[in-house]
Specification:
The structure holds two protein chains of two kinds.
Chain A lengths: L2 E3 L4 E5 L4 E3 L2 E3 L5 E7 L6 E5 L10 E2 L10 E3 L8 E8 L6 E3 L3 E6 L1
Parallel strand pairs in A: 2-11
Antiparallel strand pairs in A: 1-4, 3-8, 5-6, 5-9, 7-8, 9-10, 9-11
Chain B lengths: L3 E4 L2 E4 L5 E7 L4 E9 L5 E8 L5 E2 L8 E7 L2 E6 L8 E9 L6 E3 L3 E5 L1
Parallel strand pairs in B: 2-11
Antiparallel strand pairs in B: 1-3, 3-8, 4-5, 4-9, 5-6, 7-8, 9-10, 9-11
Classes of the chains: A mainly beta, B mainly beta.
Chain lengths: 109, 116
Amino acid sequence: AQRVTQPEKLLSVFKGAPVELKCNYSYSGSPELFWYVQYSRQRLQLLLRHISRESIKGFTADLNKGETSFHLKKPFAQEEDSAMYYCALSGQGAQKLVFGQGTRLTINP
Amino acid sequence: GAVVSQHPSRVICKSGTSVKIECRSLDFQATTMFWYRQFPKQSLMLMATSNEGSKATYEQGVEKDKFLINHASLTLSTLTVTSAHPEDSSFYICSARGVQANYGYTFGSGTRLTVV
């Protein structure tokens, strides 16, 4: 079974501080992992895919298979980063995308 | 880039009536579409996966007779909430994945359903 856990429901940091949003997963095969962001009153947007290894808006995420984690990081938070962040997993074959509970990130000025 | 259009964005209906929500992939062919439900301040809960031309696969606990899904073409999937009740009021979101895996998953803007 696919499972994604985001342990922090709320995270608040000051502008300019580093940010780390945690994501752990459970899947027996080789997963495909994603981070999605949802700004206020907007649709879900793809932020990162682990297979593309891109850095978007200064965010990065590394897949750690040993720790089954895919934490999202940014060295210097900006106020416009305030949003809801979802970690998601797609398994082999089944293709369905399963979401974590989400973390609401608030960047304080 | 890949765009998914979901319609209507908001709908209010009376108890006992049925409501149809459409999800269209505008610039790509979607072999697989997904329907999610999102309660206030909660995450997206996968309801079902639909593949073009075949029956949808429903997640455990989702009533297939209540939530009818049709995926008749590579660009259109519909979700019909039948005999709606107030507890069906929610935010419904569709997602589509293209023929090519590198398309990833693209999401619609969602439909706010209110049953009165």
